[in-house]
Write a structure and sequence with these properties.
- It is a single chain.
- The protein is α/β, with parallel strands linked by helices.
- The chain folds into 2 domains: 202 residues, Vaccinia Virus protein VP39 (Rossmann fold); 65 residues, Orthogonal Bundle (Helicase, Ruva Protein, domain 3).
- It is 39% helix and 18% strand.
- It is built from 12 helices and 9 strands.
- The strands form 2 sheets. A 7-stranded mixed sheet has the order 4-3-2-5-6-9-7, sandwiched between helices. A two-stranded antiparallel sheet has the order 1-8.
- Helix 2 crosses helix 3, helix 9 crosses helix 10 and helix 9 crosses helix 12.
- It is elongated and about 65 Å long.
- It starts with 6 loop residues before the first helix and ends with a helix.
């Protein structure tokens, strides 16, 4: 079995296939031997479950997942990596690689057809440039996944795991907390990759909630409100919500007052429960 965390081995394989890294695809391959076993151990997979991997690269994490899970399905966009993956992880008969753009793929169909009812987990080293869209796609259109364990940019991980109502929280923080219970597992130095990115990373795990922690009358309005509230952070919630939602200031001010807020309150101080209450009040208010 090839040592895929040995930089010399990796360079040799890539040179053999004439592969060059694509900055547009955010390709950074893990060469720290401790990272992928720890990710695989913490993702929830076992001999009775399936794992969906997004962006396997040269298969460093893929190998660890195949050693633990009943079946692994890896979605890879870059066709140039397919012959490399055939060489590096082709020995595993519990692995299927799909050449597709995950943002355009029908994940519910893939999971239903490939995993046949077994518990499913997502585990991936995500490209920085597409982290938020992939996470939100998985959460909003949950295809039956129990937990999502991903490596992301450290700054993104810090923001996502910040408590809603704290200065570092944002709209995505609220959305992630609405759909899952998130925790940061461990940090990853930028020197753990080839080529090394400019920033450090972190691994987070999101356990999907059976139901959201708050009840909202209209999810579309709730998320539109959250997005509007954080869309102009320098403004008060009154101004950002009025302009972002197209609702009169008087209506927003009345709802804020009913929630017990001063009209100068800012979104970054509001909790999940307060966003839900405000959303429900605005749902019943004349527009």
């Amino acid at each position: 079995m090839l040592n895929l965390t040995d930089s010399a081995v990796v360079r040799s394989i890539l040179a053999k296939h004439g592969f060059s890294f694509s900055k547009n695809l955010g390709q950074n391959f893990i060469i720290n031997p401790d990272i992928c076993p720890e990710m695989a151990e913490n993702c929830g997979a076992d001999s009775e479950s399936g794992v969906l991997e997004i962006g396997p690269g040269i298969g460093v994490l893929t190998k660890e997942l195949c050693l633990r899970a009943k079946k692994v399905v890896s979605i890879e966009l870059d066709k140039r990596l397919l012959p490399i993956l055939d060489e590096t992880v082709g020995e595993f008969d519990n692995l299927k690689i799909i050449n597709a753009d995950v943002m355009k793929a029908d994940l519910k169909k893939i999971i239903t057809e490939e995993f046949g009812g077994m518990p499913v987990y997502v585990c991936a080293n995500l490209p920085y440039y597409i982290t938020s869209p992939i996470i939100m796609m998985l959460l909003e259109n949950n295809p039956g996944v129990r937990a999502i364990t991903v490596m992301v940019q450290k700054e993104w991980a810090d923001r996502i795991t910040s408590p809603v109502g704290s200065r570092d929280a944002g709209a995505v923080t609220v959305a992630v907390d609405y759909y899952s219970q998130v925790q940061k597992l461990f940090g990853v130095s930028k020197n753990s990759f080839m080529p090394a990115p400019k920033v450090d990373s972190a691994v987070i795990r999101m356990d999907i909630r059976e139901k959201p922690p708050v009840e909202v009358k209209d999810e579309k309005l709730f998320f539109a409100l959250v997005k509007a509230a954080f869309g102009q952070r320098r403004k008060t919630a009154l101004n950002s919500l009025s302009s972002g939602l197209g609702i009169s200031k008087d209506t927003v001010a009345h709802a804020l007052t009913q929630c017990g807020f001063d009209t100068n309150v800012r979104a970054e101080t509001m909790t999940m429960e307060e966003f839900a209450i405000l959303s429900n009040l605005l749902f019943n208010s004349p527009k």
